[in-house]
Design brief:
The chain is α/β, with parallel strands linked by helices. Among the domains are: 4-88, Gyrase A, domain 2 (2-Layer Sandwich); 118-373, 3-Layer(aba) Sandwich (Rossmann fold). 55% of the residues lie in helices and 11% in strands. It is built from 22 helices and 13 strands. The chain has helices spanning 4-19, 27-30, 47-53, 57-67, 90-104, 134-152, 168-180, 183-188, 190-207, 210-223, 227-251, 265-277, 309-324, 338-350, 384-402, 409-426, 438-441, 449-468, 487-497, 499-508, 513-532, 541-562; strands spanning 42-45, 74-80, 83-88, 118-122, 156-160, 281-284, 287-290, 298-301, 328-334, 359-364, 367-369, 372-373, 434-436. Strands 5-4-9-10 form a four-stranded parallel sheet, sandwiched between helices. Strands 1-3-2 form a three-stranded antiparallel sheet. The chain has a three-stranded antiparallel sheet with strand order 6-7-8. A hairpin with a 2-residue loop joins strand 11 and strand 12 (372-373). Helix 5 packs across helix 19 (487-497) and helix 21 (513-532) runs antiparallel to helix 22 (541-562). The radius of gyration is 28 Å and the shape is globular. The two termini are 32 Å apart. The model has no long low-confidence stretch (mean pLDDT 92). The protein binds one RNA strand of 75 nucleotides through helix 3, strand 8, helix 13, helix 14 and helix 15.
Length: 570
RNA sequence: GCGCCUAUAGCUCAGAGGAUAGAGCGCCGGCCUCCGGAGCCGGGUGCGCAGGUUCGAGUCCUGCUAGGCGCACCA
């Protein structure tokens, strides 16, 4: 499934090129949308052909232009210098696009290019016993969105939550809990209690460095199967997971596997043995490392014999390949960990696993708060729940003010508030750092999730109106010849035609923001159209309603890929 | 010190090597007894610096500057 307009144009350009004796030229790559409408709908610049054909680009354009005859879709061709500018027939193009969108419905934009290949996505992966804060949100929703995008392109996906449920931090928590823990509070609000313990540990450790040693010893005891340590760890883990599940439900996120770092305690020994057998382990300052080219060595075991993050990631990668035989594995983890993944991939390569080429670190910029980094240790965090609650509350207030008759206010407020938070994060290129501020996060005007959802609700409202007026009862749209001949209708339809391209790009770049931005553009176009033209009261109301239905469908499909709901009213 | 990332409008950000660099926020001014004003229309300022590659560079390369992140027993 691709762009119904561009496909036609590209095919015609290719035919014309063939007539000039040019084969295998990637027309789709070169063809572009001109900067101004007066220059046509699509343009084909001929500069690159000048070298191939050894002719002046202007002349090539001239010859090409003559060979691209009018078709049902192509109305005329104008050559301007080295550009072949193609003008489409408004009515026919709009009609075809609208019909294609409505015919495919929820499937519009999907394709089967993935051909059943498997993508494993490692995302979210919060640390147990630490609050789920705004910093974790990015991994969670970028991963979730990428999973949906790849599914829509015919890939099989496996969502893995690689829980941070192992490591020295648990030594710290065990030590802190033994000294200052409050049983009742742990059961009532586990994450808060664990966070406080964690923060207090670091405060006290500043004056008493021996605590750090004690914590390392406690973790070693845990790793060696100490009964008391294991019991506490299990409890911390269970209680934390319950809280995370609540947040995941709100975000509509689910996982196929919750195998966290702790799941690899046995596999790790096999991995270390394998490294040993392959002669890759070197002793260095008492620790075991694998040396790598062009970067610092990867630490495999500490001098006390305990394992490290990288060791567990290695074991996990091997296990995942054995389990899923993935064609791609995405690690949706913050950019600060680039070196870590370069090292892990480097070790896998030295181990001789060809599938390391399928592993990819999907890095994203970190979230800062003002000029301070979020720091769990300092307790300087914004809880995601708090952000979601505030967003939902504000939406609720706006509904009360502007649409008090709305049904299911709470459900809609939840969808819009959560959608605002998600969209705010997905609207930017993932690699950019984001500075969190409440004003931006809780703004619902302009380039925001609620704007897109509002546009969807407005389209839904117009369609309901069409039914009420008996113009298009029960969605009985029909687009006859001549119905969509207008310029504005065409521009909207052209935007709809581009949706599959946006999805494709989002997948190729692993960049959900491509879809977010596409939706903003589409919504702007639609709202302009809406304000400029009557729909229900117009002579071609049925056709315009079909166009509105197509717009609504595409917004819904796009929001779904971002993990955002599309309410019928708000 | 070494490595990675970033630098575009007052702010937040888009920009497929191609024609005249675009949105949102903020500010100012408008929007019809009519389909939802979370909307629409109008108003202006900009590619960090210096070279290079190319028919053509905001986009690619090199150097510099500024900011962020990372660099051994945390994850």
């Amino acid at each position: 499934m691709a762009n119904v307009l561009l496909d036609h144009v590209a095919a015609k350009v290719e035919e014309a090129l063939a007539a000039l004796g040019v084969q295998g030229f990637d027309v789709r790559e070169v063809i572009e949308i001109p900067p101004g409408r007066e220059l046509g709908d699509y343009a084909f610049p001929c500069f690159q052909l000048a070298r191939v054909l050894r002719k002046a680009p202007d002349r090539i354009a001239e010859e090409l232009g003559q060979r691209i005859g009018p078709t049902e879709l192509i109305e005329r061709v104008e050559v301007v210098k080295a550009y072949v500018n193609i003008f489409l027939n408004r009515d026919e193009s709009s009609r075809r696009v609208v019909e294609a969108v409505l015919a495919r419905g929820d499937d519009y934009g999907k394709s089967d290019v993935g051909n059943g290949k498997t993508v494993v996505l490692d995302f979210s992966s919060p640390n147990i016993a630490k609050p789920f804060h705004v910093g974790h949100l990015r991994s969670t929703i970028i991963g979730h969105s990428l999973a949906r995008i790849f599914e829509s392109l015919g890939f099989k996906t496996v969502r893995i939550n690689h829980l941070g449920d192992w490591g020295t931090q648990f030594g710290k928590l065990i030590v802190a809990y033994r000294r200052w823990g409050d049983r009742a509070r742990l059961e009532a609000e586990p994450i808060r209690e664990l966070l406080d313990l964690y923060v207090r540990f670091h405060q006290e450790a500043e004056n008493d460095p021996s605590l750090e040693d004690e914590a390392r010893a406690a973790f070693k005891a845990l790793e060696d199967g100490g009964v008391e340590e294991t019991r506490l760890w299990q409890e911390f883990r269970d209680l934390s997971l319950e809280e995370f599940e609540r947040t995941y439900r709100r975000l509509g996120v689910h996982f196929d596997s919750y195998l966290g770092e702790s799941a690899y305690n046995e596999a790790i020994e096999r991995t270390v043995a394998e490294l040993e057998a392959k002669g890759l382990l070197k002793e260095s300052e008492g620790a075991l490392v694998v040396e790598l080219e062009g970067m610092p060595p990867c630490l495999i075991k500490k001098k006390d014999g305990a394992t490290l993050y990288a060791t567990r990631d290695l074991a996990a990668a091997v296990h995942r390949y054995e389990t899923y035989r993935f064609d791609h594995m995405f690690y949706v983890v913050g950019a600060p960990q680039q070196l870590h993944f370069a090292q892990v991939f480097g070790v896998l390569k030295r181990m001789g696993y060809p599938w390391v080429e399928a592993c990819e670190h999907i890095a994203f910029g970190h979230v800062r708060f003002g000029d301070e980094a979020f720091s769990t240790r300092k307790g300087n965090v914004i809880f995601l729940e708090e952000l979601l609650d505030q967003a939902v509350a504000r939406v609720r207030a706006i509904i009360e003010e502007r649409n008090p008759e709305l049904e299911e206010k709470d459900r809609v407020a939840e969808a819009v508030g959560v959608g605002a938070v998600i969209f705010n994060d997905l609207a930017h290129n993932r690699i950019k750092d984001v500075v969190f501020d409440w004003e931006t996060a809780l703004n619902f005007e302009g380039d925001t999730g609620p704007y897109v959802q509002y546009t969807h609700a407005r389209a839904a409202s117009v369609l309901r109106r069409g039914v009420e007026e008996g113009v298009a009862p029960a969605g009985a749209f029909s687009v006859g010849r001549g119905d969509l001949a207008g310029e504005e209708e065409f521009q909207l339809a052209k935007a709809l035609a581009q949706y599959p391209d946006a999805v494709q790009r989002a997948a190729e770049e692993r960049e959900p923001s491509e879809i977010a931005r596409y939706l903003l553009d589409l919504c702007r176009d639609f709202n302009s159209f809406y304000h400029a033209h009557r729909i229900v009261g117009s002579p071609n109301a049925r056709a315009r309603l079909a166009l509105v239905a197509a717009v609504k469908q595409v917004i819904k499909n796009g929001l779904y890929l971002l993990g955002i709901e599309a309410p019928e009213a708000m």
